[in-house]
Design brief:
Rossmann fold; 2 domains; 25% strand; Quinone Oxidoreductase, Chain A, domain 1; six-stranded parallel sheet; single chain; alpha/beta; 340 residues; globular; seven-stranded mixed sheet
């Protein structure tokens, strides 16, 4: 099979950054399924691994968003059979989706939405899992309590990014009042079209921006951007007994005691936790992807793919990484499968 990867951590400007090789097609055993990859997407985790976590001298295949067709199944697989069309985000401890074929545990895979082609379907799994777990597992929002949630407000910092784009829609489907941050005319339009009730500028003081909309504090904060930049203001604007979740690492020391008087909580979301540690509830990712596939087919959730880079090649993948690192991407960047 063909695979695209790297041999060492390097900046995106490096000529010939990605290499395509011919490798042996893996065999599905146990609870693994072998997927013929027909659509992929890129995420910030791709360039974070590429720049700093790839092992020197070892061929590393990136890619943690995919859709494709089940080619073969392991002897313990019960959820899928060859020919099924599936979507998933994979496991950061295993080779990624920038290949013709990929092994993935059935517990983190679901049937893809019937209404989406493979490339568009690949735009959603990682961001969907991240947003779903952040809101419903970390912030403990009851997605079925739409009437009660109508009195609650969530602030989504970084609303036009991949995670923010799906978070807005999931929050609205749960009945929440949604405030998203965006600064450019095109990103403001994007978050409004996804259903955000209000938009504030993350380049300005968030407390002042909220006050201008007659909002003193918010019940939930979902930070998809820089934790270091927003930690202090999040402790200021969170409501008493509110909840904060972030998906980005902090490189600075922060005073969590700022949350004590409000009895507010702070947590992290990392969507690879379940697969990395093979937690007892690992199959929850299969369940949530199945639920979202239905929401997509019903028109409740819109596809967040916004840039197509065509067939996956070393050159197109390098261009996508550069665009994503620029911070100018809106929604998700997708590709057709390798060698398409």
């Amino acid at each position: 099979m063909k695979s695209i990867g790297i041999y060492k951590p390097e900046p995106v400007e490096t000529p010939g950054l990605f290499t395509q090789i011919d490798a042996d097609t893996p065999t599905a055993t146990g609870r693994d399924i072998l997927v013929r990859v027909k659509g992929v997407a890129v995420n910030p985790v791709d360039f974070k691994v590429r720049k700093g976590r790839a092992e020197e001298g070892k061929f590393t295949v990136l890619g943690w968003d995919a859709a494709g067709v089940v080619e073969a199944v392991g002897e313990d697989v019960s959820l899928f059979r060859p020919g099924d069309e599936v979507w998933y985000a994979g496991d950061i401890t295993r080779p990624g989706s920038n290949s013709e074929f990929q092994l993935v545990d059935e517990r983190i895979v679901a049937l893809k939405p019937k209404s989406l082609n493979f490339a568009d379907a690949a735009a959603l799994p990682l961001t969907t899992i991240t947003a779903w777990e952040a809101m419903f597992d970390r912030l403990l929002i009851d997605r079925t309590a739409t009437d009660a949630n109508a009195d609650k407000t969530i602030l989504i910092i970084g609303g036009a990014g991949g995670v923010g784009s799906i978070a807005i829609q999931l929050a609205k489907s749960a009945g929440l009042n949604v405030i998203a941050t965006a600064s450019r005319p095109e990103t403001i339009d994007w978050v409004k079209n996804l259903g955000s009730d209000g938009v504030i500028n993350h380049h300005k003081p968030l407390a002042d921006e909220l006050a201008a909309q007659k909002i003193e504090n918010v019940d939930y904060i979902f930070c998809t951007s820089e934790t270091d930049q927003y930690f202090d203001v999040m402790t200021e604007i969170i409501a008493p007994q509110g909840r904060i979740v972030t998906i980005t690492e902090a490189s600075e020391d922060h005073d969590v005691d700022l949350l004590k008087s409000k009895s507010a909580s702070f947590s992290y979301e990392f969507m690879f936790t379940r697969s990395m540690f093979e937690t007892p509830d690992m199959i929850e990712q299969h369940k949530l992807l199945s639920a979202v596939a239905q929401l997509v087919d019903e028109g409740v959730i819109k596809n967040t793919a916004n840039e197509s880079f065509g067939p996956l090649t070393p050159e197109s993948l390098q261009k996508a990484h550069a665009f994503l690192e620029s911070g100018k991407a809106i929604g998700k960047i997708t590709f057709d499968g390798l060698g398409a």
